Amino acid sequence: MDAKLLLKSLGNDGYQDIRFEALTTTTVKVKNDEVKEVSVTNKKGGHARALCGGGFGSFSFNKLEDAPQAIAESIAFSRLIPGNKTLAPVPVVVDKVLLKPSIDPRTISIEEKKNLLLKYCTLAKGVEEIAVAEGEYYEQYSQKVFVNNEGTHIEQEQLICGMTFSITSKRDGLTQQTRLAFGGSDSFEDMYNKEEEVLKKAQITVDLLSAKPIKGGKYDVILDHEVGGLFIHEAFGHLSEADNLLRSNALKETMELGKEFATPILNVIDDPGMTGYPGSYIYDDEGVRGKKTYLIKDGILTGRLHSRETASHVGEEVTGHARAKNYEFNPLVRMGNIYIDKGPHSFEEMIAATKDGLYLFGSAGGQTTGEMFTFAVQGGYVIKDGEIKEMVRDIVLTGNLFSTLKNIDMICDNIDMRKRGGCGKDGQILISSGNGSPFMRIKSMAIGGK
Amino acid sequence: MENLFKKVLEKCDGAELYKKDEYKTQLTILNGSIQSVKGHKTLGISLRINKDGRSGSAVATSLEDESIIDRAILSSKYQKEETLTFKNLPVEEVKCYDKKVADLTIDEIKNEGLRILDLFKSVNAEVIPDVYIYRTIEYLHIVNSAGFDNQYKKTGYYILLMTKSKQGFIAVTHRVKAAKFIELSLDDVKLIIEKHLATENRVQVATGSYPVIFSGSAMGALMTRLLSGVNAGNVLKNISPLENKLGEKIASDIITIRDNGRLEYGFGSCPFDDEGTPTKDTYLIEKGILKSYLVAASAEEKLKMKATGNSFKRTIFSNDIEDQPSIDSSNFVIEGANPLPDAELIKGIKKGIYVDAVMGTHTGNIPAGEYSLNVSAGYLIEDGKFVGKVMDVMVAGNIYEDMLKIKEVATKPEVMNVVFFTMGYSPAVLFDGISVVGS
């Protein structure tokens, strides 16, 4: 991509940047043994920003030659905003980031991708009482150029691919649904030899038909790594995104660094620099290198995720977490790979130490308002006197930030990251957002039910 | 458009070319000051074709990108042997374009945002909301090989307000959304502030079964489940609980639910859907009886029903050019027999919950109608009055049981919220005996 016009579009007035990207997505969708959709999408566009007043003016556009106009519009918008906002300083970077995946998905034919997906869906559908097995292969490759009028010029390739499945079982009028995911990185490697996992998940989906619906109430729960990852993403991760602090002075006090925020056994980290996960990247959409950040250390609030604007707002260090879904959107402060650090216990010890509780598996989406959060799981098992017993279904949990993080009392000694990325914020779904966790136990979580 | 389509027809057996020009402006006011102003001018091109007995699709962001044709043909090679049916049905105009919205300058949008802030300050200087104003102008044009060649222009105007608690978290959210300009009134602001003040007294509620009012906004969570049930695609997949239920009573006989794509200045209104099928006013539930499903053109034959004009290029989480047309709401419109003014609805409750906003709309077993929602903004009602914000509360149930428990419906329509997007208009609805998990 020729960056000359982008560089020429930039002036000296205040701060100005442009990112331009060419996006190619390959999608294959399958239902049971039928292909529903194969598409290869090409999109191109840019996003300009200017800070010449009290806030950013920005403009999204498609054609490279519209970049000068987009910058002019951004400057005009920014000048409408009273004030004189500044950005936290960052090093000037000139760099080119090229991909080196172990198995490059772009070298695998659509035919092979389709056949693999069909094989897994047909396998799942073959399990008795499975009504529908739907699978999707996604591959998103982007070439981004970022330039600003401070001298930063980064050309960066990004790639993520994976398979996701939705498996539905049906018996009489009752249906149950589970999810499964492979990949979530720049390599195709994780997509092979998954027959056993597919069959196991299909069988769990059928077993859920015989499970009893959960009765609403408070439970001690052990979360698997998927549910634990979703939990920390919703319960705390979003609140650690410092653009929340732009909204409220009161929140700055509520979120003061150094406050005891959680049980002393809890450590939470966000690291975009770990390779091979959905939220892995080198530079964010402000040209800042993503930095490993301790958010909670021994239960104490120690850090948060920043853009240049938010870091300047509270006088903290930039962490390189400003990212946008694509050129149509402003960069927002987003998590990279957030995870809970490992603890001292084994899974078996945790089950044995639980007299009356639930073991919950498989994430099924969540949401937060900051203070309160909710997340759904695919199913669970009753734990009675230290043993895993019967299955239960229809489980949605809810919690309060200030009590739940203090109610974590056991953390397992291994960590696993989720294979499926994804996070929604202000209308932007970002698939390149990862999370993970060891098994963990939380006392007295509220579960909805009839 | 014409040139590209000609080239498409030279290589394909049948085709549909879709073009959307979008102009958007967004003003954000946070913490009492303007935070940002964003502009947006983009183009999306989508092509669907038939070639050698198979269908294919592709998208681009420029009319000059002729690779869209070969990419659509490539896509068709992997599909099963089935073609798309392109039609040319007559289209009638719908009121969905407001010149006033289209002509708004950024200065006028900024002034409107500041006027809203001033309204709040005039009532209570302590309650300053975040204000978001979105203005959109869309030009949509579809041509197909059956001779369909129609276009429309459409405006959108959306105000989102969020007040914050003393700890800095979201307290009350209020939405105004239509295809025309709507001026937020002082009465609207007074009502938002009244709700906000009620959130300052935080109360616990014991687990049990209570009369529950879902606000019009919160009804979106329940209607997301109904949308899945009336989706003819789910009926054909045998995963809709409403399969074979046409003509049967599935809700209280005081409730009528339509999907009205022709609602005057409704934010989801337009003359035709994203496959070129004219939009309709479809009765889904009339006085409690299931009347229809929402049908895509592709399901017409299998169900022996006419397409309802509900195929849109969006999902619960996206509104992108690459989204394939699939069944979605245009404007769900909920109406009740003998509706009560909102205040009367609350007055009649001795002890119950008013659910104003929920989290978890997209989670749980949606196809089965199950819901288990965190009440992110809700109030305890005692002796007909709000006494405080309920904390750490969930409501749970199944809409196919709970729609039969609807007792009363209020009068004032609100925009139904569905995570990022919205799905129509509903007044507050009172349900008798909903399961509540509290302390």
Walk me through what this model shows.
The complex is a heterodimer of chains A (450) and B (439). With 450 residues, chain A is of the alpha+beta class. Chain A is built from nine helices and 25 strands. Chain A has two domains: 4-210, PmbA/TldD fold (2-Layer Sandwich), CATH 3.30.2290; 213-448, no CATH class. In chain A, α3 (110-125) runs parallel beside α4 (195-207). Chain B is an alpha+beta fold. Chain B has two domains: 2-189, PmbA/TldD fold (2-Layer Sandwich); 199-437, no CATH class. Chain B is built from ten helices and 22 strands. In chain B, α4 (106-123) crosses α5. Chain B is globular. The mean pLDDT of chain B is 95. At the A-B interface, β1, β2, β3, α2 and α3 of A face β2, β3, α2, α4 and β16 of B. β3 of chain A pairs parallel with β2 of chain B. Chain B: It comes from Alkaliphilus serpentinus. Chain B: One of its GO terms (cellular component) is cytosol. Chain B: Residues 207-438 form the Metalloprotease TldD/E C-terminal domain.
Question: What descriptors fit this protein?
Answer:
heterodimer; A: 450 residues; alpha+beta; PmbA/TldD fold; 2 domains; 7-stranded mixed sheet; 6-stranded mixed sheet; 9 helices; B: 439 residues; 6-stranded antiparallel sheet
What is the strand and helix layout of this fold?
The complex is a heterodimer of chains A (about 450) and B (about 450).
Chain A: H1 4-9, E1 15-31, E2 34-51, E3 56-61, H2 67-79, E4 94-97, H3 110-125, E5 130-148, E6 153-171, E7 174-185, H4 195-207, E8 212-213, E9 217-223, H5 225-237, H6 249-254, E10 268-270, E11 293-297, E12 300-301, H7 308-314, E13 322-323, E14 332-333, E15 337-340, H8 347-352, E16 356-368, E17 372-384, E18 387-393, E19 395-400, H9 401-404, E20 408-411, E21 416-417, E22 423-425, E23 428-430, E24 434-437, E25 440-448
Parallel strand pairs in A: 4-6, 8-18, 9-16, 15-24
Antiparallel strand pairs in A: 1-2, 1-5, 2-3, 5-6, 6-7, 9-25, 10-11, 10-15, 11-12, 13-14, 16-17, 17-18, 17-19, 19-25, 20-25, 21-24, 22-23
Helix pairs in contact in A: 3-4
Chain B: H1 2-11, E1 14-30, E2 33-51, E3 54-60, H2 67-77, H3 99-103, H4 106-123, E4 130-144, E5 149-164, E6 170-178, H5 186-199, E7 202-203, E8 208-214, H6 219-230, H7 232-236, E9 255-260, E10 281-286, E11 289-290, H8 300-303, E12 311-312, E13 326-327, E14 332-336, H9 342-347, E15 351-359, E16 370-382, E17 385-390, E18 394-398, H10 399-402, E19 406-409, E20 414-418, E21 421-426, E22 429-437
Parallel strand pairs in B: 7-17, 8-15, 14-21
Antiparallel strand pairs in B: 1-2, 1-4, 2-3, 4-5, 5-6, 8-22, 9-10, 9-14, 10-11, 12-13, 15-16, 16-17, 16-18, 18-22, 19-22, 20-21
Helix pairs in contact in B: 4-5
